[in-house]
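Incident log, structure service

09:12 report received: a user says their structure output differs between two submissions of the same chain.
09:20 pulled the input from the user's history:
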Amino acid sequence: MAAGRTVVRRAPGKLFVAGEYAVVEAGNPAVLVAVDRQVTVTVTDPHPGPDPDLDLDTDTGTGTGIRPRPDFGDGPGSGGRSGSGGGSGAGARPLGRPEAVSGAASLPGAVSGAGVPGPGPVPRPRPEAEPEPGPRAGAEAGAGAWGPGVVISSDLGPQRVRWHWRDGRLVEYGPGGAEGARGRLAHVVSAVEVVGALLAERGRPVPAMDVRVGSRLHEDGRKYGLGSSGAVTVAAVAAVAARCALDLAPEDHYRLAMLATARIDARASGGDLAASTWGGWILYRAPDREHVLDLARRRGVGAMLAAPWPGFAVRRLRPPAGVALEVGWTGEPASTASLVSSLDRGTWQGSAAHRGFVRRTGALVAAVAEALDAGDGPGLLEQIRRARQELARLDEEAGLGIFTPGLTALCDAAEAFGGAAKPSGAGGGDCGIALLDARASREISHIRQRWATAGVLPLPIRPALEGIEE
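09:34 re-ran on a clean worker, output below:
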């Protein structure tokens, strides 16, 4: 790749429409919609020489390994598990109408379920298109050198951080602060490491690069719960892969982003990744993430891209006809991972109540998808009300705190004017959604006023029909 090239990739955030909590288990369905706020990742050549924006101790710097070995074992950032994760499970059946299952006509690059071949090997570039050699490793670069590596910065962080490769992982230059930097930039770092591992398997160098993240899923430091972690992972994978001359299909981007995410949290469903990758309204089933991690450990990232994934399926849905989507932010940030972990630690998991919740949620998600495909607005609103009831039942049974006063007020206001509303995602704060007759402009205005009175901020957000964009 020619030096000096700048690559920009954008990925939208998401909202859960139905299927929260149940979708965490492989094969269970959920409906999501991408939103018109994006994360932008820009990859360029690094700043030449010592960078005045980096407050680093150059005496501790070393060069960067040009072919990092993939490391998907236990340890920080690895997912922390080593089990196989049920690799023998049967693949998910196509969802909805057979003709709408993902394929060239409906969802380019997306295939569903085990038994369906994944993408083939990515063609290697012609010799004349090989990227420039990467930086020299360790001792060759010399102690104290600024040797090329990876610089990562985000508009949510106070500084840029320089990293170098060590045994397939990015390690921060300079003494101290490495764990803090990795925590703040975990998803970007993991995305770069996964793309680096794929390059290493193909015997190709990792070029030095400067990775910059800009997010419209936050405002003045406020987190809205619109899937920023998923969007930044997808955008980072796409941008770094493009910078490294990897020609990947949409599903390749999703799979690499899923691996990068599972290394951090193997319970993450990846629904946000799918929405960020394909955009629009989607029906999604999560893969067995332990199986994904095990594939990468045993067979490598390339084989993981091509192998069937038990439980995984995704397809596009028709946008709702005559229905307006309204979004409100409660002013209370929430942690999906914390809420899901609380559910795992309790006695509800594996109980009869749990099985009933999964069964009922699967049925209502299927009904939501059917209503969308049929253009049945009233039917869609009826299922959203059912989804709210199921989350309320779960909240009562498991004591998670899904419904905060703000989320309850948001839902009640929408239903008082003929709409349907529910928390979007794990609840406990963040956003709620309301679906209403698009012609009911007066009612929508009244709902926004009630939200404001209850301390809920109406957000000017609309569905995004596209996923990854250049």
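09:41 both user submissions now match this output. Likely a transient worker issue. Closing.
09:42 reviewer note: Residues 55-67, 73-147 have pLDDT under 50 and may be disordered. The two ends are 17 Å apart (CA to CA).
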